[in-house]
Amino acid sequence: MIRIANAQGFWGDSLEAPMEQLRGGPIDYLTLDYLAEVTMSILQKQYSRDPQAGYARDFPQMIERGAKEIVERGVKVVANAGGVNPETCAQAVGTSLKRAGFGGRLKIGVVTGDNILGRLADLVAQGVEFQNIDTGSPLSDVFERVRSANVYLGAFPIAEALSKGADIVVTGRCSDVALSLGPTIHEYGWKPDEWDKLAAGIVGGHVIECGAQATGGNCQVDWETMPDLAGVGYPILEAEPDGRFAVTKHPNTGGRVTMAGVKEQLVYEIGDPRSYMTPDGVADFTTIQMEQAGPDRVRFWGIQGRAATEFYKVSISYAAGYKAVGTMVYGWPDAHMKAKLADHVLRVRLDRLGLRFDAIHSEYVGVNACHGDLLSGQPSPDLAEVTLRVGVRGNDAAAVERFTRELAPLALNGPPVVTYPSGGKPKVEEVIAYWPALIPKRKVTATVTVREA
Predict the structure, then answer these.
(1) CA angle 241, 242, 243 (to 5 degrees)
(2) According to the model, what pLDDT value does residue 17 have?
(3) CB neighbours of residue 203 within 10 Å
(4) CB 148, CB 48: distance < 8 Å
């Protein structure tokens, strides 16, 4: 059995979780998942401004903090912190190890080949259509505005890096489950056509990929009685050679590992439960067998899988105009009515200025922001306060900028009992939209290199 601990569910997750996973008990691998779809576009923008950027800078800092535990406890680390610049990330990791006094003690593996932004025009010329999976639209609709294009690579390149002696593996975009599936493939020698075993690894990776979301965080079940949520433990996958596994956490940490909580994570972002597709295989979630095998321990078995498809998924981002969002807070009495009048006044003024947007959206936080309009034609409740939140989106940056200047005047020339938030004038931001597509696997080559730190 191997123990794989996840300590990051996204870029911005707890900075302390990796250290707690390293110090809380025995583990064989530490995985860190930094990349969401929008993250790639952010990193690409950083890279375009600075060729030494484009990766999750938190990762080398974490390595420096945890170097002693990583070396002395023999923990291997796998992370997709490389973003769009894995090589530079690996160099920064090497520098961090030297600063921590462990230079030359570990080998760093780098997986590249996912970033196809520079190849996009040539691939289109070769006949790769990159149709939007959701809409069927051709990439030509947005080609000139594309900001990033990254293939979701699978777990076998990670396994290859480990087999070549890597102690720390840095990747760019890969499937979330690949971070834990790669070590399992490496340890047990699973073959690319052992679909049931791979499916088990896929399900296990899916359970732990979002960090504490599997151990009581963001959990709807019994959230009000969750023990020590402030000290929540992050998940650990205990994987066995035949595909069976258990999910647990370190002792004396907060949160819970229960059937109900794990099931919430299982249905997170899966689509058809019979066909959860990854680069390495298709897992059938309807075949999952699971049981509560003790306190903070859920055991899985019997998972079935099918052959992987001939395609990789591609995450493409493109510029889609500009946006700005601003708020005003209205107080009792008649707070909701005041907020509605302020919204009406704002929209009339924008119209009279000739400002046009692709979209303008208003919410009344405290009345309808989370679940839509709950009033259903009923009179407004006598609420103590309501926040008016207004957002606009359009291709004309100047129009969006002018919107940001029309909100503040409502403090004096709009309805009464109002507070203009201390954050000041809303900020104009570029809108980055997501374009999911497919690419034949034969068009993509993953490259694995390993070197001493």
Answers:
(1) 95
(2) 98
(3) 26
(4) no
d(CA 5, CA 18): 9
> Where do the domains of the chain lie, and which CATH numbers do they carry?
2-114+152-309 (no CATH), 319-435 (3.30.70.1150)
Band (377; pLDDT cuts 50, 70, 90): low
Query: What is the rounded distance in angstroms from the CA atom of residue 292 to the CA atom of residue 373?
Result: 40
Q: At what angle do helices 178-188 and 195-208 cross, to 10 degrees?
A: 140
Rounded CA separation 247/370 (Å): 32
48 exposed, middle or buried (CB, 10 Å; 0-12, 13-18, 19+)? middle
Q: Tokens representing 401?
A: 């900028």
Query: In this prediction, what percent of the chain has a pLDDT beyond 90?
Result: 91
Tell me the three state secondary structure of residue 118.
Answer: helix
Say whether pTM exceeds 0.90.
Answer: yes
Q: Which residues, including other chains, have CB under 8 Å from residue 410's CB and lie 6 or more apart?
A: 328, 342, 345, 346, 418, 420
| pLDDT tier, 420 (very low <50, low <70, confident <90, very high otherwise) | confident
pLDDT at 331 over 70: yes
> Is the four-CA dihedral 120, 440, 42, 70 of positive or negative sign?
negative
Residues 379/337, Cβ–Cβ less than 8 Å:
no
Backbone angles phi, psi at 305, to 5 degrees: -135, 170
DSSP three-state, residue 88: helix
Q: What is the CA radius of gyration of the chain?
A: 25
- How many other C-beta atoms lie within 10 A of the C-beta of residue 179? 28
Q: How many residues does the chain have?
A: 453
Which has the closest alpha carbon to 55: 173, 216, 200? Answer: 173
**SS3 state of residue 311:** strand
DSSP string, 265-302: HHTTT-SSTT-EEETTEEEEGGG-EEEE-STT-EEEE-
* Spatial distance between the Cα atoms of 311 and 152, rounded to a whole number of angstroms: 10
pLDDT at residue 227, rounded to an integer: 96
Q: Please state, in angstroms and rounded to a whole number, the distance separating the CA atoms of residues 437 and 313.
A: 6
**How far apart (Å, rounded) are the C-alpha atoms in residues 129 and 35?**
25
Q: Pick from 275, 276, 304: which is nearest to 288 by CA?
A: 304
Which has more pLDDT, 367 or 152?
152
CB 82 within 8 A of CB 60: no
User: For residues 245 and 239, is the Cβ–Cβ distance under 8 A?
Assistant: yes
Tokens encoding 351:
């119209």
- Please, what is the end-to-end C-alpha distance for the chain in angstroms? 28
Query: What are the pLDDT digits (tens) for 210-235?
Result: 999 999 999 988 899 999 999 999 99
